[in-house]
Amino acid sequence: MQDCCEHSYCNTSCYPKPPPIPVVFKELKTIALLELTGIGTIIYDNSVKKTFEYYFTNNSKEFKTFPIVDTEGSVKKTLYFLDLYYNLGYRIFIGFNRSSMLNSVLSWFLQHPDATGMSLNSTSPTLSIPKNVYRLTPSDDNILASVEVSPFLLSRNNIFYVYSQGEVATEYVLSALLSPLSPIKDKIVPIPILPDGSNMSDVQTQYTNKGATALTDSTIIYLFVENQRRQFIDLFTPSFTPIPTFNISINIFPEFIGIQKTIWNQLFYAYQNINVSTSPLWRKGYETLGSQVYNSVSLNALQLNNYLKRKFDLNDMPNYAYMQEFNQNKDIIYFSYSDFVWKNETWIPDAVFIKDPIFGVIYKTLND
């Protein structure tokens, strides 16, 4: 095409084309539906709320605030809020941090394919199925892979499994521990705990019946409904002392009060979704809120939300705590979690378990 000129007889084809009209994209609206009261993952979901609010306040340019609603742990209320806020134009829904709750709302997401869910802590392998819900924590199969081959646990006479009864995730772990393929199946002593923890004394009864001691026996706890874990810890006293306990529910660190700081020394191990490499922004939040409040997954959840609401390519997404890459089921592929031990009134990293696209699976104990 020839250069344009000022003459009236100039062919119109020589004039430059008008610039394209910019497309104004409207960000998708986000809401969090959390179990802040009632029966559910109250402690965990409140830590999510407080961590979200910390970043809304201190990093408001990067992370825009969105509504946070209390579902009270009710499936009925959760479905009600999903319908209500969907009709108000919301399309990204954060919550469903119990696998049981996520399982209850999957059909809703199937019926609303333009809606996207995000669960920070659903870990049951039974939900490793096609769904429009991203899961940000590695499944329980990964933790079991390290637990079941632990030389320490293999040497135990009895392994008490104290778990939240009737939950999708905990019941799966029970079946896996008792599976014919499990190397510790003959050592497992199941102790199901009711949602309100009213039968927590069953732990003491079973310990007594089996003659449990710290030298010969251990406990795996998977407690996350209401205050079950708190009730478990409070059960022990100088006259009824604990045995080595492995908390496989990836949650915030428990708090030991008074004499508990001493009687639990080197006897409580807590699995955490904390990476071996974290950002300054992550560490500042952790140091400010503390280990009993800060939720280790929330910062990455906020970053994932930024990309989802703008419909950006997730393959281009930087992250603050660990790599976020998902499979076809929208489950996290790569991860790094750590096992911490309560020692000398603080939490000490004891082991790390890493799954990396280059180095593969790495399990490393740190205090040998």
> Tell me, what is the CATH class of the largest domain?
Alpha Beta
CATH homology superfamily of the largest domain: Response regulator
Regarding quaternary structure, how should these chains be classified? Answer: single chain
Average pLDDT, rounded to a whole number, is 92
> Can you tell me the residue ranges where pLDDT is under 50 for at least 5 consecutive residues?
5-10
How do the strands of the widest beta sheet line up side by side? 7-6-8-9-10-11-12-13
Sketch the major β-sheet. Answer: 8 strands, mixed
Count of extended strands: 13
Q: Helix and strand string, N-terminal first?
A: EHEHEHEEHHEHEHEHEHEHHEEE
* SS content category: alpha/beta
Radius of gyration: 24 Å
Give the amount of beta strand, in percent.
15-25%
Distance between the termini: 75 Å
Number of helices: 11
Count of the separate structural domains? 2
Per the CATH scheme, the topology name of the largest domain is Rossmann fold
Helix content: 25-40%
Second rung of CATH, namely the architecture of the largest domain: 3-Layer(aba) Sandwich
Can you walk through the features of this model?
The chain has 368 residues and is of the alpha/beta class. It folds into two domains: 29-138 and 277-333, Response regulator (Rossmann fold, 3-Layer(aba) Sandwich), CATH 3.40.50.2300; 141-272 and 337-365, Rossmann fold (3-Layer(aba) Sandwich), CATH 3.40.50. Helices cover 29% and strands 20% of the residues. It is built from eleven helices and 13 strands. The protein has helices at residues 42-58, 75-87, 99-111, 140-147, 151-154, 168-177, 201-210, 228-234, 260-263, 280-289, 298-309; strands at 29-34, 68-70, 90-95, 116-119, 133-135, 158-164, 188-193, 217-222, 245-247, 268-272, 335-343, 346-356, 360-365. The strands form two sheets. The protein has an eight-stranded mixed beta sheet with strand order 7-6-8-9-10-11-12-13, with helices on both faces. Helix 2 (75-87) runs parallel beside helix 3.
